[in-house]
Specification:
Blueprint lengths: L7 H27 L30 E7 L5 E5 L7 E9 L2 E8 L4 E2 L5 E4 L8 E6 L3 H4 L1 E7 L5 E8 L7 E12 L11 E3 L5 E4 L23 E5 L24 E4 L4 E6 L6 E5 L5 E7 L14 E2 L2 E2 L16 E4 L9 E6 L12 E5 L5 E6 L4 E6 L14 E6 L5 E5 L3 E7 L3 E6 L4 E6 H6 L3 E2 L25 E2 L1 H9 L2 E2 L12 E2 L1 H9 L2 E2 L1
Antiparallel strand pairs: 1-27, 2-3, 3-4, 4-5, 4-6, 7-8, 8-9, 9-10, 11-12, 12-13, 13-14, 15-16, 16-17, 17-20, 18-19, 21-22, 22-23, 23-24, 25-26, 26-27, 28-29, 28-30, 31-34, 32-33
Helix pairs in contact: 1-4, 1-5, 4-5
């Protein structure tokens, strides 16, 4: 029987038997699937935050990092911000060009910096002055409100609300400025400048100690009629121009009602963790120690972060200071000096993006003078995974220097601002995989983008040519590639029945899956 040579009529009869059996099997399988419908939540599927199909999830920590330059030619960029749920744009704060501070828009879908500024404001021009901060109202999509922190031509700090244009989402209504708060500045430096909405919906404003050196007026420790050296918290929706939240720590007792926390020297770049609500503050040191201060989302406010009594963890000027047990010391202290020379910390933000899963919950920050970048994790008590990332983040074009700010887009991906005019994005290093060239079995291990550009077929991240994925198929009837021609291959033919150019089930490669392909499979039955 094994030596019997099948006639064409016998092959067709056998194919019909197999076809009928396979069709019955498919019906059974289909009926089983039909009895288990997928539950519907009544909501549309959640769109990808990047506007692109989701990439396969990789193992935690499996991806190395690099940086890519998105923008150049800006005027002293300090901050990257995105309106809530706006995944197509980032807004970049330009400190000043001459006496004009600007907000610029970069379109992430078209990779284009819009030529027309979103907003231009007249500002003062000393080194640390200018347009310093931007925050979008949590309900920006509905009310169009955004808030800026800048030093006016008289040198004082202004917090103003503006409204987006009713006819163009890429331009603000420049005449809509509404003053929320002003703060007298005795010196031109240490203006702070950050502002942002917390998870509680209130607006937080970071102020420096008023400047000079050593806080000569002890303003950071003074909580009476003194908003400098503080983290303020106000309710911009509860009154005109604002109301004070009843839960602020000094309401009804000695201390300015707007104060949320105090003892800050010059909080340069702060941020909320978008997942936990924790507040991170980079506080620039005097002449010896820089610090990263931390406030958990569970805080009821009132923390004294120590300046000018302490610089970092070290005593600076403790005359008239309260007991150190009443103070909150930094999560991380970074000493000045070294090589490269560290002198001015730039606070960053916590990574909550999806492109680099292993980084979730990691805080990034840098130093303006040394051009170094670090990352760490912090659980509220202990720092872990503290490491320098400078060499890892050498960009594809340009160089990251004079680090002036960080920021993130609506999807949680992190950006770095270079005061020299550049904005960079932290990205994963693309994975290498096997790339098939033609059908002869030629294969190279390269990046997906390079493979696609050369007309090859990329087999996926971390695949290698040695796996044999590009080897020519000498047994086309083995449709599923399991080394044997059997019923599963018959089922594959039936599933693809009809016009099917280039598909695996078109065994004879005539552009149609039909009985002739079934016969090819039957004729090759068994190990292959």
């Amino acid at each position: 029987m094994l030596d019997h040579v099948w006639s064409q009529q016998e092959r067709i009869m056998f194919a019909r038997i197999i076809f009928t059996s396979a069709l019955a099997s498919l019906c059974v399988i289909g009926a089983g699937m039909a009895t288990k419908p997928t539950a519907h939540t009544g909501q549309d599927p959640t769109p990808s935050q990047t506007g692109q199909d989701s990439a396969p999830v990789r193992a935690v920590g499996s991806e190395a990092l690099t940086a890519t330059r998105l923008i150049s030619g800006l005027a002293r960029p300090l901050q990257v911000v995105a309106p809530p749920e706006d995944y197509s744009r980032i807004f970049v704060v330009e400190q000043r060009s001459g006496s004009t501070g600007r907000i610029r828009i970069y379109n992430l879908d078209t990779n284009t910096l819009l030529s027309t500024p979103f907003l231009s404001i007249s500002v003062s021009t000393s080194s640390e002055q200018g347009l310093l901060g931007l925050a979008f109202h949590p309900n920006y999509a509905q009310n169009g409100y955004f808030y800026v922190n800048y030093t006016a031509s008289n040198g004082d700090t202004y917090i103003k609300r503006y409204t987006v244009s009713a006819s163009n989402p890429d331009v603000a209504n420049s005449s809509s400025g509404y003053t929320i708060m002003t703060i007298d500045q005795p010196y031109s430096n240490h203006n702070g400048g950050w502002l942002g909405f917390g998870p509680d919906g209130y607006l937080y404003i970071g102020t420096g100690d008023g400047g000079s050196g050593g806080d000569p007026g002890n303003r950071a420790q003074d909580i009476t009629s003194q908003k400098l050296g503080k983290m303020l918290r106000i309710d911009v929706d509860g009154g005109a121009p604002y109301a004070v939240p009843a839960s602020n720590p000094f309401v009804g007792i000695t201390g300015d009602d707007e104060i949320w926390a105090y003892g800050l020297r010059n909080p340069w770049r702060c941020s909320f963790d978008t997942q936990t609500g924790d507040l991170w503050m980079g506080d620039v040191g005097q002449n010896a120690y820089e610090e990263i201060s931390f406030q958990p989302a569970s805080s009821s406010g009132g923390e004294n972060y120590g300046w000018r009594c302490y610089e970092g963890n070290h005593a600076y000027n403790t005359s008239g200071c309260p007991n150190q047990n009443t103070m909150t010391f930094p999560a991380l202290e970074v000493s000045q000096g070294g090589s490269p020379y560290r002198c001015s910390i730039t606070g960053g933000c916590v990574y909550r993006g999806s492109a680099i899963g292993g980084l979730d919950g990691t805080y990034f920050f840098g130093d303006y003078c040394s051009n170094q970048i670090w990352s760490l994790r912090y659980d509220g008590s202990n720092v872990s995974e503290y490491q320098e990332r400078t060499n890892e983040l050498i960009p594809d074009v340009g160089s990251i220097s004079s680090i002036s700010g960080f920021g993130h887009d609506a999807a949680g991906e992190i950006y770095i601002c270079d005061l020299g005019g550049e904005v960079f994005k932290i990205i994963p290093i693309p994975s290498v995989g096997a790339c098939c060239i033609g059908t002869s079995g030629s294969c190279v291990n390269i990046y997906e983008s390079n493979c696609n550009a050369g007309g090859g077929t990329w087999l996926g991240a971390d695949t290698v040519c040695a796996d044999g994925g590009c080897d020519p198929n000498n047994c086309p009837a083995d449709i599923n590639g399991d080394g044997s021609v059997g019923v599963t291959d018959i089922l594959a033919v039936i599933k693809s029945w009809g016009a099917c150019s280039g598909c695996a089930a078109d065994v004879n490669d005539d552009g149609t899956v039909d009985v002739s392909d079934l016969l090819e499979v039957v004729g090759a039955w068994g190990p292959c």
